[in-house]
Design goal:
The strands form six sheets. Strands 10, 11, 13, 14 and 15 form a five-stranded antiparallel sheet that branches. The protein has a four-stranded antiparallel sheet with strand order 4-3-6-7. It is elongated and about 105 Å long. Strand 10 and strand 11 form a beta hairpin. It is mostly beta strands. The protein contains two helices and 22 strands.
Length: 354
């Protein structure tokens, strides 16, 4: 019995020791934070702006970001293309810092515009790099270089934009620029690009290729929409370069264009009723018709009786409020969804038959 108790006690002790050991193997090291890296910096010229773009990826594993510093070095265009990072670091200037609060989590593309000094003159190369700064103040490595030699003989932005509204077009015209952004003449004009946007939306380019003349017709519009138009000159310089935007011009197309008057109106009478028929108008915005009647053909139009207090949808009408043996005169108008009423149709008349 004593031997049994001793064995039981040993078994219990073994279970306690085993349960106290809840791990298997050595502890794993913490997952390292992903580095703050930018390696796809690019620069393009649009007018007097040099536009930097680069992707940024911020995940739960990325080091905490405080800001992104943008560096610029302006150097002679014939300097060697290669430049040690140590030399760039001492010669360049921080021209902007982008706070982490303006960069959303995940993958995003950052865009920053640097304004050119158009009076500096001479062929100069602009060299850019960016680097990310952690919230601990430690700077990451520089990005790749993005270099560009800007062009200054670009036509200035068009001015004097005028808009004329027709039933099917928004017609834009503008003054042809006479000089370039650096003051040189004549203006280096290869064409124009036209953009449009709804309030709060992004700009949409309306022309697939630059237009040569200072005018453009926008046929893909909707009446009642609040549009904003801008025009940019396009200059020729080792390719085509788009210039600065014109001052925006707001325009809301308003339909003040009535439909055509109904044609080929016919009339007949039987059983004390006058029936009138006409072909449906071809305009897609016609909402209905109005029917006018008079007992005197010479009566002024504003004294005729309107038989349809509401718009009449069908392209036919039965007039039952007539007297047998009496002659009546009729005219029809078409009305569109904007309330524009057409001219009156040709007058038709009929003597009411029994």
């Amino acid at each position: 019995m004593r031997q049994f108790n001793r064995n039981k006690s040993a078994l219990i002790l073994l279970v306690i020791i085993a349960s106290g050991c809840g791990k298997i193997g050595d502890p794993l090291p913490p997952i390292p934070r992903a580095p703050l890296v930018i390696d796809e910096l690019a620069v393009t010229q649009t007018g007097t702006k040099l536009v930097l773009r680069f992707p940024v990826v911020l995940s739960d594993r990325t080091r905490k970001l405080a800001r992104i510093d943008v560096y610029r070095l302006i150097e002679p265009a014939d300097d060697p293309a290669g430049l040690p990072l140590e030399s760039f670091s001492t010669r360049s200037t921080i021209i902007n810092s982008i706070g982490a609060e303006s960069i959303r989590a995940g993958r995003s593309v950052i865009e920053y515009s640097d304004t050119l000094d158009t009076q500096s003159g001479g062929a100069r190369r602009y060299r850019y790099a960016v680097r990310m700064i952690g919230d601990d103040g430690v700077a990451a490595d520089f990005s790749n270089y993005a270099t560009i030699t800007p062009v200054f003989n670009l036509a200035v932005a068009p001015a004097g934009i005028q808009i004329t509204q027709t039933e099917k077009e928004v017609q834009l015209s503008w003054d042809r620029p006479s000089e370039n952004v650096d003051g040189s003449r004549p203006a280096n004009i290869a064409g124009y690009n036209i953009y449009r946007r709804l309030a709060g939306d992004d700009l949409i380019k309306l022309n697939p290729q630059p237009v040569e003349e200072p005018r453009f017709s926008d046929r893909n519009f909707l009446f009642g929409s609040n549009y904003e138009y801008i025009v940019r000159s396009v200059s020729s310089a080792a390719g085509l370069i788009e210039g600065d935007s014109s001052a925006p011009i707001a325009h809301t197309p308003v339909d003040k264009f009535p439909p055509a008057a109904p044609l080929s109106v016919t009339i007949a009478s039987i059983n004390g009723i006058v029936s009138i028929f006409w072909p449906i108008n071809t305009e897609p915005d016609v909402a209905g018709y109005l029917v006018y009647r008079s007992e005197d053909a010479a009566l002024p139009p504003d004294q005729w009786i309107k038989l349809t207090p509401q718009l009449h949808k069908p392209a036919s009408f039965r007039d039952e409020r007539v007297q047998v043996g009496k002659q009546y005169f009729y005219q029809i108008t078409a009305v569109d969804v904007y309330g524009n009423e057409s001219a009156r149709s040709t007058m038709v008349s009929e003597v009411v038959a029994q």
